[in-house]
Amino acid sequence: MNEKNTQKDAWIALAILSCLALITMYGETMLIPAIPYLINDFEISYNTSSWILTAYLVAGAVMTPIIGKLSDIYGKKNIGDSNRDIFCG
């Protein structure tokens, strides 16, 4: 592989990682406006509600390497399609 292809691949990888970081931040911010409603509906304190966001972030951190390994085994397209199907219902 020549240097031009390597640089192109690096820029593509950077673009993909940047998009994923943006999606992750968007996913985290989706939960924040719901916290007041969760506090009222479940009658919990604000301190207790902070564990909801923490659990969401921890679950994402735990699943990232697992999904990565599964995509190595079964293929990125199959796992990506499965994730989309689960997420979109």
SSE layout and pairing:
Layout: H1 3-31, H2 35-42, H3 46-74, H4 76-88
The gist of it:
By secondary structure, the protein is mainly α. It has helices at residues 3-31, 35-42, 46-74, 76-88.
Structural class: mainly alpha
Main sheet record: none
Give the oligomer, counting copies of the same chain as homo and different chains as hetero: single chain
Which percent range fits the helix content? Answer: over 70%
Order of helices and strands: HHHH
- What value does the average pLDDT take? 85
Low-confidence segments, ≥5 residues, pLDDT <50? none
Terminal residue distance? 41 Å
> How many strand segments?
0
Shape category: elongated
Number of domains: 1
**Amount of beta strand:** under 5%
SS element count, helices: 4
